[in-house]
UniProtKB/TrEMBL annotation:
Designated name of the protein: Uncharacterized protein
Recorded coiled-coil stretches: 29-56
Sequence intervals crossing the membrane: 85-107
Taxon lineage: Bacteria, Pseudomonadati, Pseudomonadota, Gammaproteobacteria, Pseudomonadales
Domain of life: Bacteria
Keyword field: Coiled coil, Membrane, Transmembrane, Transmembrane helix
């Protein structure tokens, strides 16, 4: 009986040790579960932050694209305006060149006409002098 009691005490001590080990392992498992829960919560918060950051980035990119489109529209408008004014200036210079050429042609024609008239006038002057010389007898 005593051997049975000693054996029973040993088994109870072994059982106590096993229960204690199970308790320790349960504590470790509970700590692991708590750690996993904390990590899951942190992961959820990080996911939320990532989503917010992505949405914020998408809004910023959309705003930048809108600003860029506006800038391109302004640039295209300015380029079109500059092109129109350049075309007007080129057209004005072309018209001016044609008018200047016409003016030169007119002036040169008038100069030619005046030279021809001067030549005829000097010829007529000589003829008048000959006639005077013939009529009056006074020749120079």
């Amino acid at each position: 009986m005593q051997t049975e009691l000693a054996l029973l005490n040993q088994e109870v001590a072994g059982l106590h040790r096993v229960v204690s080990e199970i308790g320790g392992k349960m504590d470790v498992v509970i700590q692991m579960q708590l750690q996993m829960q904390r990590l899951q919560d942190r992961s959820d918060r990080l996911d939320t932050e990532v989503r917010r950051s992505q949405e914020s980035n998408e809004r910023a990119i959309a705003s930048i694209r809108a600003d860029l489109d506006s800038a391109f529209q302004v640039a295209h408008g300015a380029r079109d305006l500059a092109t129109r004014w350049l075309n007007r200036c080129v057209g004005g210079f072309a018209v001016g060149a044609v008018l200047f050429g016409a003016l030169q042609w007119f002036v040169l024609r008038e100069i030619t006409d005046y030279k021809a008239a001067a030549g005829r006038a000097s010829e007529l002057e000589r003829q008048v002098q000959r006639l005077e010389c013939t009529v009056t007898g006074k020749c120079k």
